[in-house]
Amino acid sequence: MSTDFWSPLKLSVEIALVSGIIVIVTGILFGKWMAKRNFKGKLFLETVLLLPLVLPPTVIGFLLIIIFGKNSVLGNLITWFFNQPVMFTWWAAVIASTVVAFPLMYQSAKTGFESVDEDIENAARVDGAKEWQVFFFISIPLALKSIVSGGILSFTRALGEFGATLMFAGNLPGKTQTTPLAIYMAIGSGNMSLAWSWVICMIGISFLMLLSVHLIKA
């Protein structure tokens, strides 16, 4: 197959991997922090963290444009520091994928940490373990199934991101045109055989990812 066929697939996997790493790290940290802690405003904060799960992708894309656009403080700061805006770049696609995938990782990690027996963690503290040791050697191993499942689901969600990416990163071949965007363009141009090829690839990857989640939980 031509390079034009593999380019969107390669780009999708690269973006999903980078956003997946970001989501796994942030999801674990937020999940652990929120798991067994009660404070004023927790319900509001958790609702905000999970909001991208239910918001339309176009709304997420619009908000990203407002936050990172040329008229925003953050957008101007990024432009000054990197000498170019973040919109319509590879990193814009990563940001969009990260935002939509984060809730899945956060919820899975939080559920996993909530299932960890506090007595085991406290026993480690009594034996002299520091908080970072309890976190890395007790909490994470005991919540590992949920963390791995959340990571796989987040990667799969990032791989299939469309709406927010289109609005915030654009549809630039070889730069921001991921497989979902390429499928959309192929259908629009009437190239159904090419669209079907990409669709089959995406179904195959997604099927394997979901199958691995079920195998982990089995």
Rg computed from alpha carbons, rounded to a whole number of angstroms: 20 Å
Choose one word for the global shape: globular
Structural class per helix/strand content?
Answer: mainly alpha
Share of residues in helices: over 70%
State the distance separating the first and last CA atoms. Answer: 37 Å
Mean pLDDT: 92
Order of helices and strands: HHHHHHHHHHH
The description of the largest β-sheet is: none
Strand content: under 5%
Low-confidence stretches: none
Number of helices: 11
Task: Work out the number of β strands.
Answer: 0
Organism: Lysinibacillus zambalensis
Domain ABC transmembrane type-1: 9-217
Family: Belongs to the binding-protein-dependent transport system permease family. CysTW subfamily.
InterPro entries: MetI-like, MetI-like_sf, ModB_ABC
What attributes characterize this protein structure?
218 residues; mainly alpha; 11 helices; 0% strand
Topology diagram in text:
Layout: H1 3-35, H2 42-50, H3 57-68, H4 73-82, H5 90-114, H6 118-126, H7 131-142, H8 144-159, H9 163-168, H10 179-188, H11 192-217
Transmembrane segments: 12-31, 43-68, 88-106, 134-155, 195-216
Keywords: Cell membrane, Membrane, Molybdenum, Transmembrane, Transmembrane helix, Transport
Pfam family, one: BPD_transp_1
